[in-house]
Design brief:
This protein is an alpha+beta fold and 567 residues long. It is 52% helix and 16% strand. It has 4 domains: 3-167, Orthogonal Bundle (Hypothetical protein af1432); 184-324, Beta Polymerase, domain 2, CATH 3.30.460.10; 387-483, Beta-grasp domain (Ubiquitin-like (UB roll)); 488-566, Alpha-Beta Plaits. It has helices spanning 3-6, 13-24, 37-49, 54-61, 65-68, 73-96, 105-119, 122-137, 144-164, 168-182, 184-218, 233-242, 263-276, 318-326, 328-341, 346-349, 359-367, 373-380, 407-414, 416-420, 465-486, 503-513, 543-555, and strands at residues 225-230, 254-260, 278-279, 285-286, 299-304, 310-317, 388-392, 398-402, 422-427, 430-432, 444-448, 490-498, 518-525, 531-539, 559-566. Helix 8 crosses helix 9 (144-164), helix 10 runs antiparallel to helix 11 and helix 14 (318-326) packs antiparallel against helix 15. The longest helix is centred in the middle third of the chain and has 35 residues, at 184-218. The protein is elongated, with a radius of gyration of 36 Å. The termini are far apart. The chain binds manganese (II) ion (MN). Manganese (II) ion binds at residues 39, 63-64, 131. Manganese (II) ion is lined by residues 39, 63-64, 131.
């Protein structure tokens, strides 16, 4: 029943874990009535299929023993070693991870990252995905309440996580399994609506295939496979929402898929297809030159096909196909196969990936040089979020910040007003300074004071651009408000008068007579020595006083002109 698991003999790590877990779960049944252990077997079988190592397969077999049986972690460690125990512990913790029911959509992305950062070892996440897959496959046996929760978590957390790991097939499967539970009415409608369209389109694809194969063979291209794939219900539903729920507008309900050996052949096939049928404008997508952020590569084109029907055609290499279905695991499997068979790597290894390199893609790149499984597994242990921390609000919301972030960064991340009015912070219920360096897992609470404004000092320690921007603009406003309230700070007089001995003295005498405190005074003579220009800057004065002073200065013998301005 489980062909991949069978290959391990009973003395191996996997074999021993099998016997132990079966014994531990003895007598327990699942909601379906099946022996509980069948679930563990199924999870381990998936983990095998995804090419993980023996420790992962053993951990998959043992993943529920801590949670559901009397077994304790030290026993697992004693029997199966530190590594298996570490994985089982991670799975147990992930299982008990709680988050609020009303988590908002914007926080879901953080939550996904949190799940990963929490475990520090991607193998835990992958085993968890296998666990979730089987739970979703048997969801119909659970109570309505648990069905909803599982389906929601799967759609929001686990399917996107699988997608990010490049495991597109699994991601789609999970979404499809959750769909009928989340939107039962829509699901019923969709199945009914699609039924006829599906079978007619499959018949249509069967008509197209021979024509395509003939054209390819005339061009000396021998594809490895030409088949059709039906669009998944969940993604079809999402697409229908964008197309007025009109099934006739969906052109990739059935897509024809051509799998060839090399990238050159992909483009050659594209040429043949476009020669055979007119492409629909603006529908060609080159995901080989510009892979999707999760690493997906393929050529997609839409053409006016046989009988002028609009049809999507996808072209890719076998490796791209596997990678698209299986993600990082496939990547490793290919590496191994290539090393054995001495495949020519030239055709694809030099492809430059454009667009943002997300973490999964980075992982793939790191993996490129790995030749053995041990190193591959090692790469899964890398802390992907070593530059990020995840802290928690008192309401259990998870906030994603850069490493080194402080309570002020946290406050601005929540709301600019909370940032501006932040006066203190509590971390894990203890008061900390505002420049305190937060750590992953900290529960952070901000103390605010209405009317409080940021200080320049904060710019010294905040890490996020968001905080810096808000602080700067608050500081600018503070200065502006101060100016408006206080009025001008200075008044500057410019006196032009005859160059003569004692003139400057007379001017300063007038100023001291008015009890004016000067900030600066300096004089300048014109080259012909006929006029002096004297600039005087003093603290701002009332208009009246300025007017009187002006009269007096003008009366000084030799004065030609007096001007002033407030600054
Ligand atoms: Mn389980």
């Amino acid at each position: 029943m489980f062909p991949l698991l069978k290959q391990f003999d009973s003395n191996s790590l996997v074999g021993r874990a099998y016997v132990f877990a079966e014994q531990a779960h003895k007598g327990m049944t699942r909601a379906s009535g099946e022996p509980y252990f069948s679930h563990c077997e199924q999870v381990a079988e998936s983990v095998c299929e995804w090419h993980l190592d023996e420790a992962s397969i053993a951990a998959a077999l043992l993943h529920d023993v801590i949670e559901d049986t009397k077994t304790e972690l030290p026993e697992i460690e004693k029997l199966f070693g530190v590594e298996v125990a570490f994985l089982v512990d991670g799975l147990t913790k992930l299982h008990t991870l709680e988050y609020p029911e009303d988590t908002r959509y914007t926080e879901v992305e953080s939550l996904r990252k949190f799940v990963v950062s929490f475990t520090k070892d991607l193998r835990v996440v992958i085993i968890k995905l296998a666990d979730r897959l089987h739970n979703m496959q048997t969801l119909k046996f659970l109570t309505k309440e648990r069905q909803n929760r599982f389906a929601w978590e799967t759609t929001e957390i686990y399917a996107p996580l699988a997608y990010r790991l490049g495991m597109q097939k699994l991601s789609g499967e999970l979404e499809d399994l959750a769909f009928p539970f989340i939107h039962p009415e829509e699901y019923k409608w969709l199945v009914e609506t699609v039924k006829d369209s599906y079978s007619s389109r499959i018949r249509y694809a069967e008509k197209v295939n021979p024509i395509l194969l003939r054209a390819l063979s005339e061009n000396h291209i021998r594809p490895l496979k030409v088949d059709s794939r039906a669009k998944r219900y969940s993604s079809l539903y999402k697409k229908l929402q964008r197309y007025d729920m009109d099934i006739e507008k969906i052109h990739d309900l059935i897509a024809i898929r051509i799998i060839v050996k090399t990238i050159e052949e992909c483009y050659a096939v594209l040429g043949v297809v476009h020669h055979l049928w007119t492409p629909v404008p603006n529908r060609f997508k080159d995901y080989i030159a510009r892979p999707k952020p999760n690493g997906y590569r393929s050529l997609h084109t839409t053409v006016f096909c046989v009988d002028n029907r609009i049809t999507e055609i996808q072209i890719r290499t076998e490796e791209m196909h596997e990678e698209g279905e299986m993600g990082i695991a496939a990547h490793w499997a290919y590496q191994q196969a290539r090393d054995k068979k001495g495949y020519n790597t030239q055709n694809w290894s030099g492809i430059k990936k454009s667009g943002e390199l997300l973490w999964v893609e980075q992982l793939k790149n790191w993996q490129e040089n790995f030749t053995d499984q041990e190193k591959f597994v090692q790469s899964l242990k890398v802390d992907f979020f070593k530059d990020r921390i995840f802290v928690v609000t008192p309401d259990n919301d998870i906030i994603d910040l850069p490493k080194g972030a402080t309570p002020v960064d946290f406050a601005y991340c929540i709301h600019s007003d909370i940032g501006d009015q932040c006066t203190g912070a509590k971390v894990d219920q203890k008061i900390v300074p505002l420049d305190y360096e937060l750590q992953s897992g900290n529960v952070v609470e901000i103390i605010t004071h209405k009317g409080k404004k940021p200080t320049e000092d904060w710019l010294r320690f905040v890490k996020t651009e968001q905080a810096k921007g808000h602080i700067r603009s608050a500081l600018r406003e503070k200065t502006k408000a101060f100016r408006e309230k206080a009025g001008p700070l200075h008044v500057e007089f410019k006196v032009i008068g005859q160059t003569r001995h004692g003139y400057l003295n007379e001017i300063t005498a007038v100023l001291s007579e008015f009890k004016i405190s000067m900030n600066s005074i300096h004089g300048q003579s014109d080259p012909r020595k006929t006029f002096d220009t004297i600039s005087i800057r003093c603290d701002a004065l009332p208009e009246q006083k300025v007017a009187k002073l002006l009269v007096k200065l003008k009366k000084t013998q030799g004065t030609r002109e007096v001007t002033y301005r407030f600054i």
